[in-house]
Design a protein that fits this description.
By secondary structure, this protein is mostly helical. The protein is built from twelve helices and no strands.
Length: 277
């Protein structure tokens, strides 16, 4: 499949028709399809609620406060004194994404859908045959990243972890948490939602996936939220054509690292020590 054709807006309907005509699209009868859609979208609702309201570090503080009160220990004070307070908050943030975007969907896949999670995008599939499509998708975004990185607001916003430049341990730990979150996100949207709904809805699973994917971008700038529609659509097509989430992971990670290192290069710079203490 020519990647230029996959990403060409003129041919997008043709690509969707091909996905719709190939198995496992529309492989379920009407009652089974109805139950499949109900189970998957109910899971999506629960997971999005959990991630949205559970990801904030204040929930971690509530748990530590409760544990400290029961055991007469000041866990919050100890965490602040350790110098890792902010990073612990991001570890909580990433862990909540793991639960909401991976563990709960995997449970539904195994128990309700009676399928293997491995078959929902975790394999490499034919990602290598669509590499040009992913490069074409990420290239204009990297140019936009360069342009916005010249502004002062960008420097103040990235990286999210303020102590990323303190040491290599800080930077590596932060980027691992950040990258893990993108893997979880790609599995949820381009792995679970697409592959679980495709037998019931065919190519329309892509459009269903695009709606919650757009909505998680609402807290961001309107231009980024608008771009998420096309970004989600093209990544959805490529994910089903390649039968893998890893191309989308590579795109997200490339953009995220470019933004972080562009910001670091303009302010505090790359760390020059290994350990912060």
């Amino acid at each position: 499949m020519n990647p230029l054709k996959v990403l060409n807006p003129v041919n997008i309907l043709t690509q969707l028709d091909r996905i719709d005509a190939e198995p496992p699209s529309h492989s379920l009868d009407r009652p089974a399809a109805l139950r499949r859609v109900m189970a998957v979208l109910a899971c999506v609702c629960v997971c999005l609620l959990l991630v949205h309201y559970g990801k904030y570090s204040r929930n971690l503080l509530l748990i530590l406060h409760w544990l400290g009160g029961n055991l007469d220990q000041d866990y919050i004070g100890a965490l602040r004194a350790s110098g890792w307070f902010e990073l612990a908050g991001y570890a909580w943030w990433s862990a909540v994404h793991l639960v909401g975007y991976v563990l709960i969907p995997v449970l539904v896949i195994r128990v309700v859908l009676k399928q293997r999670a491995l078959d929902m995008g975790w394999r490499w599939g034919e990602t290598h045959t669509h590499w040009l499509g992913y490069v074409l998708l990420v290239s204009p975004i990297l140019f936009f990243v360069y342009m916005v990185s010249l502004g002062q607001d960008f420097v103040h916003h990235y990286p999210f972890y303020d102590k990323a430049s303190r040491s290599w341990v800080d930077l590596i730990a932060w980027e691992c948490l950040y990258i893990a979150q993108f893997i979880f996100l790609e599995f949820f949207f381009r792995g679970f939602i697409l592959n679980a709904l495709r037998p019931a809805m065919g190519a329309n699973a892509i459009w269903v996936m695009c709606v919650p994917y757009l909505m998680i971008h609402f807290p961001k700038l309107w231009l980024e939220a608008t771009g998420a529609i096309l970004f989600g659509l093209f990544l959805g097509v490529l994910a089903l054509r390649s039968r893998s989430i890893w191309g989308g992971v590579a795109v997200h990670v490339t953009i995220a690292l470019a933004m972080d290192f562009a910001a670091l290069g303009r302010k505090s710079g790359i760390p020059d020590i290994w350990w912060p203490f």
